[in-house]
Amino acid sequence: MRAAGRALGEERSAGIPADLLCPLSRRVLVDPVVAADGYTYERKDAEAWLRTSQLSPVTKLPLSDTNLIPNRLLKQLLAKY
Predict the structure, then answer these.
(1) Distance CA 20, CA 32 (A)
(2) pLDDT in tens, the chain (81 residues)
(3) Rounded to whole angstroms, how far apart are CA atoms 67 and 51?
(4) How far apart, in whole angstroms, are the C-alpha atoms of residue 39 and residue 45?
(5) Which of 80, 67, 3 lies closest to 35, judged by CA?
């Protein structure tokens, strides 16, 4: 359910389950990826974070690697949402 005049990914947290929001931007995920910390982020936000930090945005602990893996299941669920 999108608000009139807003594209998916531009919505803020109002009425949207927290699991569908990027912990960095607090926007609805569009291209979800999983980082080494096990958390899911919006790809562009995670890439921007990793350009300046090697720490988890959520735990603030060092990441074992900087690979981002597509979260295909969540992407499918988002498409249905």
Answers:
(1) 9
(2) 334 334 444 445 567 899 899 999 999 999 999 999 999 999 999 999 999 999 999 999 999 999 999 999 999 999 987
(3) 12
(4) 13
(5) 67
pTM strictly above 0.90: no
Q: Enumerate residues 6+ apart whose C-beta is below 8 A from 77.
A: 20
The CATH number assigned to the domain with range 18-80 reads 3.30.40.10
Q: Where are the alpha helices (DSSP H) in the chain?
A: 43-52, 72-80
| Domain positions in the chain | 18-80
